[in-house]
Specification:
The strands form eight sheets. This protein has a five-stranded parallel beta sheet, with helices on one face. A four-stranded parallel beta sheet has the order 13-12-11-17. A three-stranded antiparallel beta sheet has the order 6-7-8. It is globular, with a radius of gyration of 23 Å. By secondary structure, the protein is of the alpha/beta class. Helix content is about 30%, strand content about 20%.
């Protein structure tokens, strides 16, 4: 009898949890990802803001499954799925057959029909995004140091973060800490403490997923850090010269996007229904209604809860979905009773503001301030992979906390002085 073949596309939280959950199950597994590493996305903004290095939050996928001979890893990009012939198509022309397929392909940033903005306002989903943003941040200070025209100098020292969810709030807080506490002694011609950090949110408050009390505390914490919070007005344009918020133009050379996400094209590959964000609509067991052996999980799936709300696109949700799919596949292959339909258990919301404040909402338990920051840090360290990573991140944070210094402030790209964000005709 031919061995059952499970193909998992995507090495993020959902995909990895599925493979982990299938350990010991009589099956052959192929894990496909277009990158060779698993990324701990919740700390990606700390790479972008020079607090952590890339190797501290990413791990080679092959290394993670080196002791699992039934798991094969394929470095490739998927271009489509043939449901009839049970094959996954790769961009370089090859195909991979499957008996069970799990699509955990994640999401990218969404610009709400203004894709031209991406060049000027990169989002934050990959290591490449993080190092691009880090380069732009550091180069802005370097160019301001040489700039003779005061107006252009101030534009270099203005940073606009769009979107006041956890990523935007955390990013704005870290930039403020970098500019106002870390860098001032290192520059001679500029005072980095005069840097403007502007957080723009179309909604009425920051961190809308949190309670109003924690949201208000977060805004006050941002104010204390020197972050200007603009609420209630959406961005209407992004250019290499700056950002237009409503009718007001803000000259700024560095713009960071954190306002929305768009699911991967999994629904298009499968030819099935998707919601407005492009997420594939799945049933109570996370497979598409048209095929019980094709599952879609994580950021690229639209999963309805009993109260009618959609399961949020966060790491704990993806891990829970991957665990459910693994249990279901195991039950089918071993002849045991299938688990009950998927039920998402919300463990709480966490966000940090700078290096000494955070907010935590665990339902009945709500915390803010320094204690919340320590709990936030311990929770993130716990979910990192491997003792080495936990120790490295813990040491980096402790060093930053005690010394106030960021250790990952390197501009490493070859064309450092030919950054694509550099406007034509500027004065140096």
């Amino acid at each position: 009898m031919q061995e059952h073949h499970v193909v998992v596309v995507g090495g993020g939280f959902g995909g990895l949890q599925t493979v982990h959950g299938l350990k010991g199950v009589p099956t052959r597994i192929t894990l496909i990802d277009r990158r060779n590493h698993h990324l701990f996305q919740p700390l990606l903004y700390q790479v972008a803001t020079t607090a952590l290095s890339t190797s501290e939050i990413a791990w080679p996928i092959r290394h993670l499954f080196r002791d699992r001979p039934e798991v094969s890893t394929v470095l490739a990009e998927v271009s489509g799925v043939d449901r009839t012939n049970r094959t996954v198509h790769l961009t370089h022309g090859e195909t991979v057959s499957f008996d069970t397929l799990v699509l955990a392909t994640g999401a990218r940033h969404a610009y709400f029909g203004n894709d031209a903005w991406e060049k000027h306002a990169p989002g934050l989903k990959t290591l490449e995004d993080a190092t691009t943003i880090r380069r732009r941040l550091l180069l802005a200070f370097e160019r301001a140091e040489l700039e003779k025209t005061e107006e252009v100098k101030q534009a270099y020292l203005t940073f606009v973060v769009i979107g006041a969810g956890p990523t935007g709030v955390e990013m704005a807080g870290m930039i403020a800490d970098l500019a106002k506490k870390v860098l001032p002694p290192e520059f001679r011609n500029i005072d980095t403490r005069k840097t403007r950090i502007i957080l723009v949110e179309a909604g009425k408050r920051v961190l809308p997923a949190f309670t109003e009390e924690l949201s208000e505390y977060s805004k006050r914490a941002l104010d204390k850090l020197g972050v200007e919070v603009m609420l209630g007005t959406p961005v209407s344009d992004c250019t290499e010269e700056g950002v237009k918020v409503g009718d007001h133009f803000i000259p700024a050379r560095t713009i960071i996007w954190g306002a929305g996400v768009q699911a991967s094209p999994a629904a298009q590959w499968l030819g099935v229904k998707a919601d407005r964000a492009g997420r594939t609509e799945v049933g109570p067991h996370l497979h598409i209604p048209e095929d019980p052996n094709i599952f879609v999980i994580g950021d690229t799936a639209s999963v309805q809860q009993a109260d009618g709300k959609t399961v949020p696109g966060i790491a704990p949700a993806a891990k829970q979905q991957g665990d459910h799919v693994a249990k279901l596949i195991k039950a089918r292959l071993t002849g045991k009773a299938e688990p009950a339909p998927f039920k998402y258990v919300h463990k709480g919301n966490l966000a940090t503001i700078g290096k000494r404040a955070a907010v935590i909402d665990f339902g009945k338990i709500k915390l803010k301030g320094v204690i919340a920051w320590w709990i936030w840090g311990l929770a993130h360290i716990y979910f990192l992979i491997g003792t080495r990573s936990r120790l490295a991140v813990a040491w980096s944070w402790l060093w930053i906390y005690l010394s106030g210094q960021h250790s990952a402030r390197l501009i490493t790209q070859r064309d450092t002085l030919k950054d694509e964000a550099q406007p034509v005709g500027k004065t140096l």
